[in-house]
Amino acid sequence: MRQSHLFTKTRKEAPSDEVAKNAQLLIRAGYIHKEMAGVYSYLPLGLKVFNKVANIIREEMDAVGGQEIKLTALQDEVLWSKTDRWDDKKVDNWFKTKLKTGKEVGLGFTHEEPLTNIMKDHVQSHKDLPILAYQVQTKFRNEKRSKSGLVRGREFSMKDMYSFARSEKEHETLYAKVREAYIKIFERVGLGDLTKITFASGGVFSKYSEEFQTISEAGEDTIYIDEKKNIAVNGEVNTDEVLADLKLDKKNLVEKKSIETGNIFSLGTKFSEPLGLTFKDKDEKDVPVIMGSYGIGVGRLMGALVEVLSDSKGIVWPEAVAPLSVHLILVGADEKVRAHAEEVYETLRERGVDVLFDDRDVRPGEKFAESDLIGIPTRAVISEKTMAEGKVEVTARASGKSTMVDEAEFLNP
Amino acid sequence: MRQSHLFTKTRKEAPSDEVAKNAQLLIRAGYIHKEMAGVYSYLPLGLKVFNKVANIIREEMDAVGGQEIKLTALQDEVLWSKTDRWDDKKVDNWFKTKLKTGKEVGLGFTHEEPLTNIMKDHVQSHKDLPILAYQVQTKFRNEKRSKSGLVRGREFSMKDMYSFARSEKEHETLYAKVREAYIKIFERVGLGDLTKITFASGGVFSKYSEEFQTISEAGEDTIYIDEKKNIAVNGEVNTDEVLADLKLDKKNLVEKKSIETGNIFSLGTKFSEPLGLTFKDKDEKDVPVIMGSYGIGVGRLMGALVEVLSDSKGIVWPEAVAPLSVHLILVGADEKVRAHAEEVYETLRERGVDVLFDDRDVRPGEKFAESDLIGIPTRAVISEKTMAEGKVEVTARASGKSTMVDEAEFLNP
C-alpha cells in the first residue's frame, strides 16, 4: 500500500477531550476516529489491525470446534424477560429504542438469550450436543462514563463464544479447551507474559469465573498476583476466605492495575432453564443444557496492546497484529532513488510482504516521526546513500536498532 | 465440514409468520434465524454465504482503489442536523436511543454525514484527492413493514462506498469505475443477466441515479425495460418527459417486478457544503469536494439470489457464493463404505475443496431432500453400489443431472 494513496494523515495532537493514551495514539496515527465518548470508527490501518486480531481469535475458536455465526443487535423483550434481564433496574446498561409499531426493542449488550433461544430449534437429542458457537459482533453498552478509549466502549466488537454441553463433566472439558485457546490467543497477539488468569466472582452456578487480566496502568481493575504460582485474584474477591480457598498467602500477593481483556464463565442452567433449552438424554428424559460463555473484546485487546507496548514516540505493534509488516521509506527527491525504491516495493509485494510504502514528497524527519507514531515493526529506508552501498537501512521499531542490510538479503531473507 | 458437527438442522416448515420465499427457504435450510420482522441472525452456513458475497464485493471495491473502513452505528445529532437529516419529520426511518446523560443518539441508516466529517481531518489539499472509501457495516432502518425476508431488513449489512473528487469531471471518472465494478459484482455472484441498470430519480445534484434492479416476482419495485437497448427506467420516473430524455419508446418497454440490489448516486456538494468538507485547489482557493455514494445490500443480494434461483426442492446456490462446493453424502450403514467415504472426504479436504460431508446415520431419502434444500452446487454420493464400481455418483443441483464418475477422476478433476 502506498502512503500517497492511504487517505488518512497523522496529526500532532489528539482531540482535547480524549484522555486515554490508546485512543490518543490511535487517533493521532490515523487508525481510528472518535464519534463520541466510547464510540470509535475504524479507518484503513485500524481496520487492518482489528481484522488481524479478530482472525487470530477466529483461528483459535475454529481449532476447538467453534462454529461462527452472527447474531443481531436488535433484541426482543420476550426473551430477556424470561431471564429477568430486560428491566433497566436489573441491567443498567441497556440501550433501548422503538419500532414504528411502538414496541420497545433493545440493543444487545451480550447474546446468551438469543443464542439459547436459537439452539431450541437445533438441539433435541443428546446426539446434538456438545456445541460451541461464536461470533465477532457489535455490542452496545450504555456506560455512564467512557473515558478509556478502545478499552471501554459504548459500541464495540466482541468475540463471544457460547458452549452447550450435556453434563457438568462435558462442560468442564469444553471450558478447559476454550481456556487453553484463550491462553494461545494472548500469546499470539503478544500479551502472553502480561496477561494473568485471575479468579473473579462467579455467580449462582460457579464459585469463580476466570478473567484474563492484562497488567497496565491504564486498567480499571485491581488484581493481586502470586507471581510464583502465576495466579491472580481480582480485588473484588480478595478476601481471607477466598485466599484460603485458593491456597494463596496474602503476603505473596502483588497489587497491579489491569485491563480485563477476556473472561470465561460457567453458566450452568442459568439460561437454558428459563428459556427452556433441554435435550432428551439416553433414557428419553428432558434435561437442561449446561452452558458456558467466553468473551474477548477485539477493540479492547487492540487498545490494551497500545497501552502496554507503545513508547514516547508512538505505537509499537507486535508482528502478528501489525497493520503491515514493513514500512518502506523513500528518502530524498532524486529520481533514480525513487525509481529504485519503486522496484524494491514491487519486489516485496510480489513476494507477498505487506508493505506500507512512503512514496510521498515529504522531508525525511517528518517521515521518520510518522513512521514511529504508526508503529509498523520493521522500517526499511532507501536513500541515495543506501543505494550507493547496495544496502537498505533496516530499523526495528521495538528496539530502535538500525542495521545496514545487503539489499539482496533484505529481499530474500 | 462434517454435517454431524454442524449444529443447525433443517426443518420441514418455516415459521408461520414468515411470508417471504427467501426467508422461508433460508430458515428451513438452517442458514438464518428470524429474531423479529426484518431482523435475522446468520447461522454457520448463512454466514459462509454472507462472507462469500461480501468478499466478492470487497475484491471489486479494492480493485478500483477503495479503502476499507468501519464506521459506527451510534450517530451524533450535531452532524445530521447540519444536513437537515436528523428530524424524524425529514427522515422517517431513524431508530433513536439515549445515552445515560439523556442525550439522544441515532442508529445510522446510511453514513454520508460521519464519513464526510472524518474526511475533514484528512483532506486539506487537492493532492489529498480523489478518495474512495467503503465499509461492510450494519445499517438500521425503522421500516413500517418488513415482510420481504432478507430483501428488506430493519437491521442489515450493507456495503456502502463513498467517493470524494476535486471536480465533476473527476467524479464522473470515479463513478464510471465503480459502475463497472458493480456490473462485475453482479456477474460474479450469478445475477448478471437478471440485473438491469435502471434510471431512477436523482436529486438536487444529478438528473438521475442508477439502480441495479434484479428481476424477480418478489421485488417491491416496478421497472420498464427496453430489452434491445438493455436499459430500464424505474416506475417512479416512467414519464413521457423522461422517456424522451432517455430516447426510449414507450411501446418497446416491458414491465417487470424487481429487487433493488444496488444503487449509485452522484451527490455533488450536498454533504460537503453543509459539513464544510473543502480542499485548497492549486490557487489556494477553498473548493467543496464532489461526492458520490454506492450501495449494495449484502444480505439483500443473498435474499435476491434465493428468490430468483431456487426451485421447488430448495435453494440453488451459484458456485461463487455457495457455502461449500461439494455435498458429499454417505449412503448406507456399511462400515467399509463409511471408511471409504471418510477417505474421500479427507482427500478432498487436503486438495482444498470445501466439502460438507453428510456422515450422519440418517436414511438416504432424507439426506437427499435436505441436500436439495441446502442447495450446494455439486452432490457426490458414495454407496455400496458406487464403491463396487469404483465410482462416485455426481449430481448438479441446478440441472438435477446425475452421472457416474470414476472416483480417481472425481478426486483429480
Entry keywords:
homodimer; 413 residues; alpha+beta; BirA Bifunctional Protein, domain 2; Rossmann fold; 12 helices; 30% helix
> What is the share of helical residues of chain A?
25-40%
Which blocks of ≥5 consecutive residues of chain A have pLDDT under 50?
A: none
Strand order of the largest sheet of chain A: 9-10-13-11-12
Q: What is the distance, rounded to the nearest whole angstrom, between the alpha carbons of the first and last residues of chain A? A: 21 Å
In the CATH hierarchy, what is the superfamily of the largest domain in chain A?
A: Bira Bifunctional Protein, Domain 2
**Which two protein chains have the largest interface (Cβ within 8 Å of the partner's Cβ), and how many residues from each?**
A-B, 54 and 54 residues
Q: How many DSSP helices of chain A?
A: 12
> What best-fitting shape of chain A do the alpha-carbon axes yield?
elongated
What's the average pLDDT of chain A? 96
The rounded Rg of chain A comes to 25 Å
Query: In what range is the share of β-strand residues of chain A?
Result: 25-35%
Largest sheet of chain A: 5 strands, mixed, barrel
